[in-house]
From TrEMBL:
Keyword DNA repair in record: no
Residues in coiled coil: none
Stated family: Belongs to the TPP enzyme family.
Residues in Thiamine pyrophosphate enzyme TPP-binding domain copies: 431-586
Superkingdom classification of source: Bacteria
Keywords tagged on the record: Amino-acid biosynthesis, Branched-chain amino acid biosynthesis, FAD, Flavoprotein, Magnesium, Metal-binding, Thiamine pyrophosphate, Transferase
Pfam family, one: TPP_enzyme_M
Stretches that traverse the bilayer: none
Organism: Cellulomonas triticagri
Protein name (Swiss-Prot/TrEMBL): Acetolactate synthase
Length: 621
């Protein structure tokens, strides 16, 4: 087995260092600062554009169609909104998500009624699962036609009710400014999420008075951000007296802009830290207390530490099944402190001994001085035995991979070299599958918002449009879409959007001619019966499709890499191209698998380090 390119650093006393810059969670304009009352006689369509401007939107990803068409006319005249014409509404939704993840701002997408709106269902559901602030504006048939099965009518409000934080149907043009102001406020406060605003075409075509609201009136919507002091004190006491503590960091830390506070807590507590798939980069991977990612494809030390912990402090994590494995056997001896801004998450999957509802930035800010007081009272806990055990796991079970025997590239090597040659200031957006897990494992993330992926919904096709949106939001950063050949074929039409709009993303197609993760499961659980997972994209003499030619057809630069000696040179060539998109087709082994692995539904104790190798940590320690 080849050891991963980044062996775990030895644990040593950490020195306090400032965390990487991270955008703070945005605050809706309407409730944040008073401004002169804006009143203007406009059409409803113009009111939509003016409302988006006043809400602070900068970019809209969308496609026009009949029901939304009235809005596209005044949109053409806006000097404050950049509209990017995508090639598919799903691409527009994921681009808005990538923009939001990379910037911390609200992402905005726009579509017409019927199929245009229903094509947004996947990115809306994706944003809902991963707590992304998103506002989707959809056109609807005229108010008098609603409910008549009119041409291109779909009840998008009803369809998206379970997958939005909130949604609206607007038939009165006077309601447009208030509704859009509320949508941005709801999307970006509390637990972030998607909000859909469906607007009847008749409302867009009717004259109205545009007045931007000066205050927000949302009865019943009062997200709790300040944690309860009693719970904070108890969490601090437990953390100061635990002998095997683990901080389980989730995506909520990144959403709340709490990386600096997390770093201080890690340094001052001495606890081991694991970062979930959505939290990669919340703590630098080089931090000596960082054990990596837990869960189904987490590191052995991260999984083992959670199983052996006497205290798990979950910060903005939701005890997802991919992290816990068989829930009843997860961290069986641990006291659970669970801090989250969403009270519905507390106790939903795992009962919390100390429940803390609040914004993670405020939770950690309050926890730090309480921890110092508890440590002054009890003394700092003796964690040497705990760290000896952890360091033994790290030494014995480092991340690694087997070199392929079929003459093709090791995908893990390709992805690790992309990370090493590009560096931590870049943004990496992954699709879903084996390449997603390898990108989470083998790229070192040193700052928040550098890693974008579809974690909860697991959406194939996420990578290219998300990278596009991230590049729009952070044009000075290098942005890689790390994609599989299956994922890439779902949304690669957005390369046309990138070329025409001068959005020079870089796409690494990890091409194993297969639906790789499904094939891995077929190998392990279905006696290698490969039913409908062979994509025939390049392992033979014919490439179908030929991704290099496809890139050229879209106005991008197409490169192919098939040999180990060409990997670095090909990546460097891609990095040199700054004025157009680049697609690199890396021909990798289809037999490479993602390890470690916890099979679905089994206890984390049954983790396999590699095929046929199950680490047996001492369950009596």
């Amino acid at each position: 087995m080849v050891q991963g390119p980044h062996p775990a650093p030895p644990r040593r006393p950490a020195t306090a260092a400032p965390a990487a810059e991270q955008p703070a969670r945005p605050v809706a304009d309407a409730s944040a600062r008073p401004r002169p009352v804006l009143t203007e006689e406009v059409t409803g369509a113009k009111s939509i554009v003016r409302s988006l401007e006043e809400a602070g939107a900068e970019v809209v990803f969308g496609i026009p169609g009949g029901a939304i068409l009235p809005t596209y006319d005044p949109l053409m005249d806006s000097t404050r909104l950049r509209h990017i014409l995508v090639r598919h509404e799903q691409g527009g939704g994921h681009a808005a998500t990538g923009y939001a993840q990379a910037t911390g701002k609200v992402g905005v997408c726009m579509a017409t009624s019927g199929p245009g709106a229903t094509n947004l269902v996947t990115p809306i559901a994706d944003a809902n699962m991963d707590s992304i602030p998103l506002v989707a504006i959809t056109g609807q048939v005229g108010a008098s036609l609603i409910g008549t099965d009119a041409f291109q009518e779909a009840d998008i409000v009803g369809i998206t009710l379970p997958i939005t934080k909130h949604n609206y149907l607007v038939t009165d043009p006077a309601d447009i400014p208030r509704t859009i102001a509320e949508a941005f406020h709801i999307a970006s406060t509390g637990r972030p999420g998607p909000v859909l605003v469906d607007i009847a075409k008749s409302a867009m075509q009717t004259d109205t008075t545009f007045t931007w609201p000066q205050q927000m009136d949302l009865p019943g919507y009062h997200p709790v951000t300040k944690p309860h002091g009693k719970q904070i004190r108890e969490a601090a006491r437990l953390l100061a007296t635990s002998r095997r503590p683990v901080l389980m960091v989730g995506g909520g830390v990144i959403r709340s802009g709490a990386a600096a506070e997390l770093r201080r807590l890690v340094d001052e507590s001495g606890a081991a830290v694991v970062t979930t798939l959505m939290a990669r980069g919340a703590l630098p991977d080089t931090h000596p207390q960082h054990l990596g990612m837990p869960g189904m494809h987490g590191t052995v030390p991260a999984v083992a530490a959670l199983q052996k912990a006497d205290l798990v402090v979950a910060l903005g994590a939701r005890f997802d099944d991919r992290v816990t494995g068989k829930l009843s056997s997860f961290a069986p001896n641990a006291t659970i402190v669970h801090a989250d801004i969403d009270p519905a998450e507390i106790g939903k999957n795992r009962a919390a001994d100390v429940p803390i509802v609040g914004d993670l930035k405020e939770v950690l800010a309050d926890l730090l001085p309480e921890l110092a007081r508890e440590q002054a009272h009890h003394g700092k806990p003796d964690l040497e035995a705990w760290w000896r055990q952890i360091d033994s796991w790290r030494e014995t079970f480092p991340l690694g991979y087997d070199e392929p025997t079929d003459g093709h590239l090791a995908p893990q090597h390709v992805i690790s070299r992309i990370g090493e040659l590009t560096g931590p200031e870049a943004i990496y957006a992954a699709g879903v599958g084996q390449h997603q897990m390898w990108a989470a494992q083998f790229i070192r993330y040193q700052r928040p918002n550098a890693w974008l992926n579809s974690g909860g919904l697991g959406t194939m096709g996420f990578s290219v449009p998300a990278a596009m949106g991230a590049k729009v939001g952070q044009p000075d950063r290098t942005v890689w879409a790390i994609d599989g050949d299956g994922c890439f074929q779902m949304t690669n039409q957005e390369l046309a959007t990138c070329t025409i709009n001068e959005i020079p993303i870089k796409v690494a197609v990890i091409n194993n001619s297969s639906l790789g993760m499904v094939r891995q499961w077929q190998t392990l659980f279905y006696e290698s019966r490969y039913s409908n997972t062979d994509l025939h994209t390049g392992h033979g003499t014919v490439h179908v499709p030929d991704f290099v030619k496809l890139a050229d057809a879209y106005g991008a630069v197409g490169l192919r890499c098939e040999t180990l000696g060409d990997v670095d040179a090909t990546i460097k060539r891609a990095l040199e191209i700054d004025d157009q998109p680049v697609v690199v087709d890396f021909t990798v082994s289809r037999d490479s698998m993602v390890w470690p692995m916890v099979a679905a539904g089994v206890p984390n104790d049954d983790i396999q380090y590699a095929r046929g190798i199950s680490p047996a940590w001492d369950r009596e320690d």
